[in-house]
Amino acid sequence: MSTEVSRRxxxxxxxxxxxxxxxxxGSEGTAGAATAPAGSGAEKSRVKPTIVLVHGGYAxxxxxxxxxxxxxxxxxxxxxxxxxxxxIPTDAPYVASLLDSISGPVVLVAHSMGGTVITxxxxxxxxxxxxxxxxxxxxxxxxxxxxxxxxxxxxEVLPVSVPVPYTKADGTTGTxxxxxxxxxxxxxxxxxxxxxxxxxxxxxxxxxxxxxYPTTAAAWKTIPTWGLVAGRDKAIPPAAERWMYSRANxxxxxxxxxxxxxxxxxxxxxxxxLITDAARSVA
Length: 283
Prior knowledge:
Helix content: 40-55%
Mean pLDDT: 88
Number of domains: 1
Strand order of the largest sheet: 2-1-3-4-8-9
Number of helices: 11
Number of strands: 9
CATH superfamily: Alpha/Beta hydrolase fold, catalytic domain
Order of helices and strands: HHEHEHEHEHEEHHEEHEHH
CATH topology: Rossmann fold
Distance between the termini: 67 Å
Shape: globular
């Protein structure tokens, strides 16, 4: 067989194979379109919001670990803000700068003192579509955390807080509050003693002045809000949480009756479910 004939045979065979592949691909594409579930195009076109989680005092971002896993399993991008815990003038602009760096919609979530931070930080942020408060403060303009924690009886956390003086950058003296080794009953009664020892050893203290700074904005007045009540909270009294969420006209309030203050550690599924509910509502 001549080289030219062999070349023609190869080209012809290649063309036949290419045509067969195109027919197969076309038929598979048609079948795929025919069997695709109704509404799948709309589902794909939805942009899932980024979930931004803000921790409170005596904690760091690791307190969200069990919640993060559940959110990521549902396909949500999650970011934990490293809350400075220095008070509104420092914490709110810091978290606001993180929000500015995120393209697309955001569901902003906070625990405890982080609630004060997001209430101020989210003001005027068009990309923040929902606020989710987890056993958190929800202050109004002019209110302080000190006023809110004393509004209802039941908080036991300050007596087990250890004051530690520190020198600020300007040379003045501030006071950090650390949770003592005797603080489990007041802060985290429903986790194991071993887990509490780790939490207490790795905690980040907060500046005691955080209780004195008045809130300058109330983002919950313009952004849809969700709230979770920790039913056995001895840091922020459950009655205070219910009252603050109700005042904020929360779209949904759930209660975990047996939870301590650290509900995101002891009941991460309930926390993740509420966050997911908010995310789906604003998607």
